[in-house]
Design a protein that fits this description.
- The chain is α/β, with parallel strands linked by helices and 297 residues long.
- It has 2 domains: 2-151, Rossmann fold (3-Layer(aba) Sandwich); 181-286, Glycogen Phosphorylase B (Rossmann fold, 3-Layer(aba) Sandwich), CATH 3.40.50.
- The protein is 35% helix and 15% strand.
- The protein has helices at 11-27, 59-64, 69-82, 97-105, 139-151, 196-208, 221-231, 243-252, 262-269, 283-286; strands spanning 2-6, 32-38, 51-57, 89-92, 110-113, 129-131, 181-184, 213-215, 235-237, 256-258, 274-276.
- The longest helix has 17 residues, at 11-27.
- It is globular.
- It starts with a strand and ends in an 11-residue tail after the last helix.
């Protein structure tokens, strides 16, 4: 069986889709999946053994230049790549108009949330099959239920498993102290941030205990640099890293502390011990979840 997964963004949402694909492969060992995802997160689906082909899109970038000929060439190339295969099922787990439009371009029966379940109700009009999956559930469970319904298998007896047995390999990774806490501090919203004074206090306490705080560069580079200057000698700001290299560091981190960010969900996927902070969002719906073998601390 060959299926197409449409889950384009964001980083955390893409990570949340991985357990559903693990379920499907366990119930259907011959299953092979292609996955449509935003170019920024294209590395992630390829880390799962059930994924055969990753089809990057750049909707966020395309929207900024809708009349650019280069954009239309990219869109045409994406459509051509999507049309190369016919699928036994096309499953849109995003539930948005943009993801439903992508599913509509693919060849095969289309599955998605019904009107009451989709984040954007009009998206349900694009599907040939619609499933009711209550929204008052964790995002991981919604993904698992939707894919199980589309492919007609039972979820009973299937433990949560992201399918990421090994960290990705990168050309180079920066050296970090053997004893450290990885601070996944970057967020997409100001109200999700933890006050800088608290990060500074944490860095000082770790230094007193012979450890240190390691901060990714990422989109929060200026904030990280400011924190690093004030927290020395206990803090280290990493150089700019690709997603593969950063994921490799996360997978090997002795401990992590972070905000409601996609990288924190990736840390949970790799079963790293740590603490997630939710100053503005509901963890019951999108909080970090580790596999049973790696209970959260």
């Amino acid at each position: 069986m060959r299926i197409l997964i449409v889950k384009t963004s964001s980083l955390g949402d893409v990570v949340h889709m991985l357990p559903a694909l693990t379920d499907a492969r366990r119930r259907l060992p011959a299953l092979s999946a292609d996955w449509v995802v935003e170019e920024s997160f294209a590395a992630i689906p390829g880390w799962h053994p059930a994924v055969d082909r990753v089809l990057p899109v750049a909707i966020r970038r395309w929207r900024k230049r809708p009349l650019d000929r280069a954009v239309w060439r990219e869109v045409g190339a994406f459509k051509a790549a999507l049309a190369q295969r016919r699928y036994d099922a096309v499953v849109d787990t995003q539930g948005l108009l943009k993801s439903a439009w992508i599913a509509r371009l693919a060849r095969g029966p289309r599955w998605g949330y019904d009107r009451a379940s989709a984040r954007e109700p009009l998206a349900s009009l694009f599907y040939t099959h619609r499933l009711a999956v209550p929204r008052a559930q964790h995002a991981i469970e919604r993904n698992r239920q939707l894919l199980a319904g589309a492919l007609a298998y039972a979820l009973e007896g299937l433990a949560l498993d992201y399918g990421l047995s090994h960290p990705p390999t990168a050309a180079s990774e920066p050296s970090v102290p053997p004893r450290h806490v990885l601070a996944l501090h970057g967020t997409s919203r100001v109200d999700k941030e933890w006050p800088q004074a608290q990060w500074i206090e944490l860095a000082h306490r770790l230094t007193e205990r012979g450890s240190g705080l390691v901060l990714p560069w990422g989109n929060e580079r200026e904030r990280a640099r400011r924190g690093d200057r004030r927290c020395e000698p206990g803090s280290i700001v990493l150089p700019r890293l690709g997603l593969d290299a950063l994921a490799g560091l996360i997978a090997k981190a002795p401990a992590v502390v972070g905000m409601d960010t996609g990288l924190m969900h990736l840390a949970a996927a790799y079963g790293r011990p740590g603490v997630a902070l939710y100053p503005a969002t509901a963890p019951a719906l999108t909080g970090v979840r580790s596999a049973p073998a790696h209970p959260p601390s």
